[in-house]
Specification:
Length: 337
């Protein structure tokens, strides 16, 4: 099968054997995989002589099913899947049953291939602990910030979103009820108006890099005892006095939820009981597919680039040299260049 790897700072395609799969796993023939620009561009930039597998979000058709996964899945079924190293940019994926979700017939597989990003977005919202009617500020409207904003609005939260790139603001403008800002200086007033002067209940930071000023500003936007949730690869430097004044919480949102990076869950098939861990990464993936299926969110305008697998390098070049020109990118395994 063909697969993508990062090698010496670039992306190349190579041939590999179709992966083996165990009793708790599902073998999937990939139809589409979605590029996660933040995670994957970082991996490409850090790659050296050792080839590095990339990708973690895909959708396709079940090809074969392990003995202990047959109660939930069967050959020919449409599914989404999430989580490296099992899920990556490759023609076949051997994925544990906890990391696979059924996709209804009326949901397109290219949109379902964003399931990994969707699970990450949902977990970020859960980390913020937001309740009906509260106010959230989202900074950074790349594809992950876009999905988070849509989920928050679907949950009837008061949403303020900010990005300096006009195309990203335009992509969100069709969602009624979201206040969109072009610069951080506008957020203070928007937050005061949305919250009745209380301040935002949470700020979700989807930006990256060394931005101490952005973190410090976030303390000004939140209410007393509000939360700041860091989703992007952001250096956590801030002024202690600002945090102390609000008795604020600064939280990291780690991937798609409980179970991620736990080999007992992902590799050996031990699920967390719902009575103790209500929302695992697998259940978050299922919930994201439900949001798509029931039309609570619409991500159609986020997938701005779709290319055959053989032309994947073009997309990575765009993300490197002209990131503002592309929002969401999907690799198509059904067509050739």
């Amino acid at each position: 099968m063909r697969t993508l790897v990062a090698h010496n700072g670039t992306v190349i395609m190579q041939d590999e054997p179709v992966p083996d799969f165990g009793e708790e796993m599902v073998l999937i023939r990939t139809s589409y995989s979605t590029i996660s620009p933040g995670t994957e561009m970082t991996a490409v930039g850090r790659s050296g002589e050792s080839k590095l597998r990339i990708g973690y979000s895909a959708a396709g058709i079940v090809d074969q099913v392990g003995k202990k996964a047959k109660q939930s899945f069967w050959p020919g079924q449409r599914v989404a899947c999430y989580g490296g190293p099992y899920v990556r940019h490759a023609e076949y994926l051997a994925v544990h049953k906890h990391l696979v979700a059924t996709v209804p017939d009326h949901v397109s597989l290219d949109q379902a291939s964003t399931g990994g990003l969707g699970a990450i977005a949902i977990h970020a919202v859960r980390q913020a602990g937001l309740q009906f009617g509260e106010t959230v500020v989202i900074i950074g409207l790349g594809i992950l910030g876009q999905i988070i904003a849509r989920i928050c609005r679907a949950a009837c939260l008061r949403v303020i979103a900010c990005d300096h790139v006009p195309e990203r603001r335009t992509a969100l403008s069709e969602i009624e009820g979201i206040r969109i800002c072009s610069k951080p200086e506008d957020i203070q007033l928007a937050t005061a108006e949305a919250s009745g002067g209380i301040g935002a209940d949470a700020v979700v930071l989807c930006a990256s890099g060394k931005q101490m000023e952005l973190l410090d500003l976030s303390f000004d936007w939140i209410r007393d005892r509000g939360k700041i949730v860091i989703v992007g690869d952001l250096h956590m430097e801030f002024t202690r006095a600002k945090m102390f004044k609000k008795e604020a919480q600064v939280l990291i949102s780690r991937a798609g939820g409980p179970g991620r990076y736990d080999s007992m869950y992902e590799a050996l098939g031990f699920d967390y009981p719902a009575g103790y861990v209500r929302w695992t990464e697998g259940r978050n993936l299922e919930e994201y597919i439900r949001l798509l299926a029931e039309h609570h969110i619409n991500i159609g305008n986020l997938l701005t680039k779709q290319v055959p697998l053989a032309e994947a390098h073009r997309v990575f070049d765009l993300y490197k040299h002209d990131p503002a020109s592309i929002l969401g990118a999907v690799l198509d395994y059904n067509s050739e260049s």
